[in-house]
Amino acid sequence: MNNKSFLRGLPTLLFVIGATLAIPVEAKQCTPSGIFFRSHGDQLKIESVDSTGNPNTAGFRLIVLGNMFQDAPIQAKAEGEIALTEDHCLGVYSGGNYCTLIFEFLPKSAKIHQIGTCLTGAGVDPDGTFHRTSKPERYLP
């Protein structure tokens, strides 16, 4: 690994370490599975940790709506596999050189922080809190 590559990933590494140390939630309260929504219609689906076959990973699919143009929102999607901390309270998705999503799982919600550019489009912003729902039929395919 060259110095440029290491330095490019350094802010992400420092954020992950700091976020891991700052999480005040007990491990049994972290639930990295379910369907989550935000008020704008943004949606997050996290597959059960056990369904991926690796207890420290979970699958995800994220849909974020942007600005409306002629009654049709811009829709940005991301999906993949999240690497989870041992207590499953924090997850990280790395989608390339300039794309990292940090997931913090709480008892009734999930917080996302984007580092770099994972989801693009006018008004598309995945950062924020998504609230767990018990109505999976609302989730877009």
Radius of gyration from CA coordinates:
15 Å
How far apart the termini lie comes to: 38 Å
Unreliable spans are 21-27
Question: Share of helix among residues?
Answer: 10-25%
Number of helix segments? 1
Describe the oligomeric state of these chains in a short phrase: single chain
Q: How would you write the strand order of the largest sheet? A: 1-2-3-4-5-6-7-8
Computed structural class: mainly beta
| Total number of strands | 8
Strand content: 35-45%
Overall pLDDT confidence: 76
- Global outline: globular
Major sheet: 8 strands, antiparallel, barrel
Helix and strand sequence = HEEEEEEEE
Task: Provide an overview of this structure.
The protein is mainly β and 141 residues long. The protein contains one helix and eight strands, in the order αββββββββ. The protein has one helix at 3-22, and strands spanning 34-37, 43-46, 57-69, 72-84, 90-94, 99-105, 109-116, 128-133. The protein has an eight-stranded antiparallel barrel with strand order 1-2-3-4-5-6-7-8. The protein is globular and about 45 Å long. Residues 21-27 have low confidence and may be disordered.
Which helices and strands appear, and what pairs or packs with what?
Layout: H1 3-22, E1 34-37, E2 43-46, E3 57-69, E4 72-84, E5 90-94, E6 99-105, E7 109-116, E8 128-133
Antiparallel strand pairs: 1-2, 1-8, 2-3, 3-4, 4-5, 5-6, 6-7, 7-8
Task: Describe what is shown at a glance.
This protein is mainly β. It has one helix at 3-22, and strands at 34-37, 43-46, 57-69, 72-84, 90-94, 99-105, 109-116, 128-133. It has an 8-stranded antiparallel beta barrel with strand order 1-2-3-4-5-6-7-8.
